[in-house]
Specification:
334 residues; mainly alpha; MetI-like fold
Length: 334
């Protein structure tokens, strides 16, 4: 028995009480979200100052024009303006889906984008893998320069080269066909030839430059993986399949998601430069339809409805592709 007169015989605080008190004290000392954001801004204010021009550009050129999307739901008149034009609901969308030209353009957009995805998307990957296997640096740099160059050439010049190459009178393609005894073909007036020419031109112009992303991903692979594979007796082919491709797979998936999101964004400039009324059957796409209806025809509200539909479909595609990728491969944009 204790001789302390103040002792009451009551037990001290339990372990649970001590833990609870410590947690509460820590929670009271922890800064709020606003305080944490403020501290972060004070530490990294230089970075946010550098972001201001980009934010202003996005706000002025991307977000502010969204105000005009409402004309897709109005009987828009240039004289009445956006606010003065009456609302008509989804009438323009009903008109679009009853318009044979729009349905044809939508079909062509999907088909051309699908061809570009099937034949165009793997090409930068193949180029990157081939460049990675080249051991002679002089040849490697020369080849890379040659395949990168078309990306930096104006679309107008690229279209001029294509038109000249496929010319029935002096084009290199018809000249070679003449050597084989085949009559000249005016390819750019044949609807059945437009899609292969357009997709092939896009691959030639962009595949080399797009391979830079995959080359950068390959450069990030640890050399020790290849060294271990060499010790185990693996060939170059086996190392490519077992090390290189699996290592760059997350990059491939991210680029695929972005490509799927842009499926309806077929190269507008190249189509305008290459197509003509004789090839509308297979060459007319949603963007050229919007151009003819909105700019040339003055139907700004109908063109806005077509553009909004295009954007919504692209949003749904990228969200779906991202969700599927996140579920099955654990790789996603967000």
């Amino acid at each position: 028995m204790t001789s302390d007169p103040n002792f009451t015989g009551a037990a001290g605080p339990s372990t649970e009480e001590l833990i609870f008190d410590a947690t509460e004290a820590q929670r009271r000392r922890r800064p709020s979200r606003i305080e944490r954001v403020g501290d972060h801004l004070k530490r990294e204010w230089q970075l946010y100052v550098m972001l201001i021009p980009t934010i202003l550009w996005l706000a002025i050129f991307l977000y502010k024009p969204m105000y005009g999307l409402q004309i897709a739901f109005k009987d828009y008149s240039v004289f009445r303006g956006v606010e003065g034009s009456p609302w008509i609901g989804f009438e323009h969308f009903q008109t679009l889906f009853g318009n044979d030209q729009f349905l044809r353009a939508l079909k062509n957009t999907i088909v051309i984008s699908f061809y570009g995805l099937i034949f165009g998307f793997p090409m930068p990957i193949l180029l990157a893998l081939m460049f990675n296997e080249i051991l002679k640096q002089t040849f490697k740099k020369t080849a890379q320069t040659i395949v990168y160059l078309p990306h930096f050439v104006s679309s107008v010049i690229i279209a001029g080269i294509v038109i000249t190459a496929f010319s029935p009178s002096a084009g290199i393609v018809n000249t070679m066909l003449g050597w084989l005894g085949i009559e000249p073909i005016y390819f750019l007036t044949k609807p059945e030839w437009f899609r292969p020419i357009f997709v092939g031109t896009g691959i030639w112009q962009e595949a080399g430059f797009q391979s830079i992303v995959y080359l950068a991903a390959i450069a990030g692979i640890s050399p020790t993986l290849y060294e271990s594979a060499v010790v185990d007796g693996a060939s170059r082919w086996q190392m490519m399949w077992k090390i290189t491709l699996p290592s760059i797979l997350p990059t491939i998936i991210i680029m695929l998601i972005i490509r799927i999101g842009n499926m309806l964004e077929v190269s507008f400039e190249m189509i305008i430069l290459l197509y003509q009324p004789a090839t509308y059957e297979t060459a007319d796409v949603v963007n050229t339809f919007i151009y003819r209806q909105g700019i040339q025809g003055g139907q700004y509200d109908l063109a806005a409805a077509a553009g909004l539909f295009n954007a919504v479909v692209a949003f749904v595609l990228v969200m779906t592709a991202n969700a599927i990728s996140k579920r099955y491969s654990r790789t996603s944009l967000w």
